[in-house]
Design goal:
Elements: H1 3-8, E1 10-11, H2 17-26, H3 33-43, H4 57-66, E2 67-68, E3 74-79, E4 85-92, E5 95-104, E6 107-111, E7 115-117, H5 126-130, E8 132-135, H6 138-156, E9 165-168, H7 178-189, E10 201-205, H8 209-218, E11 222-226, H9 232-238, H10 247-258, E12 266-272, H11 280-290, E13 296-302, H12 316-328, E14 332-335, H13 360-366
Parallel strand pairs: 1-2, 6-9, 9-10, 10-11, 11-12, 12-13, 13-14
Antiparallel strand pairs: 3-4, 4-5, 5-6, 7-8
Helix pairs in contact: 2-3, 6-7, 8-10, 11-12
The protein binds iron/sulfur cluster (SF4).
Residues 118, 120-122, 125, 127-128, 171-173, 206, 226 line the site of iron/sulfur cluster.
Protein name: Dual-specificity RNA methyltransferase RlmN
GO biological process, one term: methylation
GO molecular function: methyltransferase activity
């Protein structure tokens, strides 16, 4: 098929069930045909309409000329010694995004990207240092799951579902790509699609307060918030979006979200940076901030250093001491296991390739390194 024809065609990976039903109507077909088509694509991984044996031949012929199921080209695949797999997908014009599959005994988690790059520019994040190119379309978000699920099934020679959890924690701030994100989430949750439980789909945000409120109404799934500091002056430096939506506003939004969330807690992510945010004083400040204010769990993340950050990973002893203060205060705290670090697939290491349109990579390298934090409480 020539390139011009491909461009005119609708990529069905971008349509949730509602969108696909509307598309079938446009073709003069009954809406229920969409359910069959959706199952073929997402549950069976089919991309060839000729294979879809329970669809009328006339519909298959129409689809063959007007639509396609087009995956993202895979640039590379790396498999870690611990079974973690990282794919680099080509999203065109020199941009590439990453997705990571993390197998565990009781689940299979896929971490996927929502943007090529990221405009938030968190200090400790390699994606943030690369700057921002563009939002991914719905089909580019879902294509990561579609490819991972069906390629894993093929290699494991099974028809059983492999990916049980999806975390929107790859490249990008998902809530800054909201209109593409929501249909993708709906496809993950749809029983005719991937059938994932709301509790097992997690959106991770750096704190885009108005969009947290919208997500609560439109498609509440599990929420993780990149907190990384319990006081505004420090969080302003680590997560620049904090200047727009400071901690108190963020926590209020978290409480509103909990009214409709599928889990009764918010997960706060806290990347442990040596002598920046890992002091016992800040642990106590964090306890004061969260305890009795937001139902939560805290996930301490070992920092994965990269040269441009100018930051260092906290020692195991410091992480342990920090965690102990939280645990002693009755806050459920976990320390994230590092997975796939031999293939640069650990948290904060996803870099892909980004044509930076924001010149963030230049600004951030020149900015001074974060200094030791003030310890004033927010409350
Ligand atoms: S941590 Fe998330 S929001 Fe912050 S720069 Fe990285 S990808 Fe963007």
């Amino acid at each position: 098929m020539d390139a011009v024809k491909q461009l005119e065609q609708t990529n069905l990976l971008g349509l949730d069930l509602e969108g696909l039903a509307a598309y079938c109507e446009q073709l003069g077909e009954k809406r229920f045909r969409a359910t069959q088509l959706f199952r073929w694509i997402h549950q069976k991984g089919a991309s060839d309409f000729a294979q879809m044996s329970d669809l009328a031949k006339s519909l298959r012929d129409k689809l063959a000329t007007r639509a396609h199921v087009a995956a993202l080209p895979v640039i590379s695949e790396h498999v870690s010694a611990d079974g973690t797999i990282k794919w680099l997908f080509d999203v065109g014009n020199g941009d590439a995004v990453e997705a990571v599959y993390i197998p565990e005994s009781d689940r299979g988690t896929l971490c996927i990207s929502s943007q090529a790059g990221c405009a938030v520019g968190c200090r400790f994040c390699s994606t943030g240092h690369q700057g921002f190119s563009r939002n991914l379309a719905t089909w580019e978000i879902i294509a990561q799951l579609w490819y991972a699920e069906h390629s894993l099934r093929k290699r494991q020679n099974t028809d059983e579902r492999i990916i049980s959890n999806v975390v929107m924690m790859g490249m990008g701030e998902p809530l800054q790509n909201y209109t593409a994100l929501v249909p993708a989430l709906k496809m993950m949750l749809d029983d005719h699609g991937y059938g994932l439980s709301r509790r097992r789909v997690t959106v991770s945000t750096s704190g885009v307060v108005p969009m947290i409120d919208r997500l609560r109404e439109d498609c509440p799934v599990a929420l993780a918030v990149s907190l990384h500091a319990p006081v505004d002056p420090l969080r302003d430096q680590l997560v620049p979006l904090n200047k727009k939506y400071p901690i108190s506003e963020l926590l209020d939004a978290c409480n509103r979200y909990l009214e409709k969330a599928p889990r009764d807690f918010i997960t706060f992510e806290y990347c442990m940076l040596d002598e920046v945010n890992d002091t016992p004083e800040l642990a106590h400040t964090l306890v004061k901030l969260l305890k009795h204010h937001v139902s939560c769990k805290i996930n301490l993340i070992p920092f994965n250093p990269f040269p441009a950050s100018g930051l260092k990973r906290s020692s195991n002893e410091r992480v342990k001491a920090f965690a102990q203060i939280l645990v002693d205060a009755g806050i459920v705290t976990t320390v994230r296991k590092t997975r796939g670090d031999d293939i640069d697939a650990a948290c904060g290491q996803l870099a892909g390739e980004v044509q930076d349109r924001t010149r963030a990579h230049i600004r951030m390298v020149r900015a001074p390194v974060v200094v030791k934090a003030p310890t004033t409480s927010q409350t």
